[in-house]
Design brief:
Elements: E1 3-16, E2 32-38, E3 44-58, E4 64-78, E5 84-85, E6 102-106, E7 116-119, E8 125-131, E9 137-138, E10 143-144, E11 153-155, E12 159-165, E13 174-189
Antiparallel strand pairs: 1-13, 2-6, 2-12, 3-9, 3-10, 3-11, 3-13, 4-7, 4-8, 4-12, 5-6
Length: 190
């Protein structure tokens, strides 16, 4: 069993999509709105918390459900492309910590182009909200993974997290996703 030996750095980030619209329902390669990746060998990322939020800024033609699911990605040998690269500087728990080894991308007006990866069969987080009017939101919901035996979800080299839109967005609706995460760079034995 893996055991965390040392915390090299600890970070908290909030990432916001562009004004997303007409995002496909998620599959292994479609509807991806956030991708986080560890491309560094010998060090692990530990996802401690994940907090998604959605706000509708332009109403759909008819009310609809908006949702997401987040999966651990393995065999993540080529990163996602398109949309916007994440800025992952700062956010340090202690200013002397090393910079994070995490990289990633987030949706702009449209979804990401999938990389090469395998998604786990079941999501690590999932949620939805009925959206009927401007300002309707899926309130932030905290997914806290720190209570397990490793203090979070461990992401080895060429592993990551992919967040997908779960329901095809209506053509007229526009909204923004906000994702707040707490993540550590750690060394592991076992």
């Amino acid at each position: 069993m893996a055991k965390v030996v040392d915390v090299i750095s600890s970070h908290r980030f909030t990432f916001t999509t562009g004004a997303v619209t007409t995002i496909a329902a998620g599959t292994a390669t479609a509807g991806h709105i956030l991708a986080l990746r560890n491309a560094t060998s010998g060090k692990y990322l530990r996802l401690r918390t994940f907090e998604p939020e959605f706000i509708l800024t332009t109403a759909f033609g008819a009310a609809q459900e908006v949702g997401f699911d987040a999966f651990k990605a393995t065999v993540y040998t080529a990163p996602h492309t398109g949309a916007t690269a994440l800025t992952v500087t700062g956010g340090k728990g202690i200013t002397t910590y090393d910079s994070t080894i995490m990289s990633g991308r987030i949706a702009d007006a449209g979804a990401l182009t999938a990389g090469t990866h395998t998604l786990d069969a079941n999501p690590i987080a999932k949620g939805s909200q009925w959206c009927s009017a401007i300002g309707t939101s899926m309130a932030p919901r905290l997914y806290d993974f720190s209570g397990n035996e490793t203090g979070g979800i461990l992401l080895a080299n060429e592993e990551g997290v992919v967040v997908r839109n779960t329901i095809l967005m209506g053509a007229t609706g526009v909204g923004k996703w906000h994702f707040t995460i707490e993540i550590d760079t750690v060394t592991v034995t076992g």
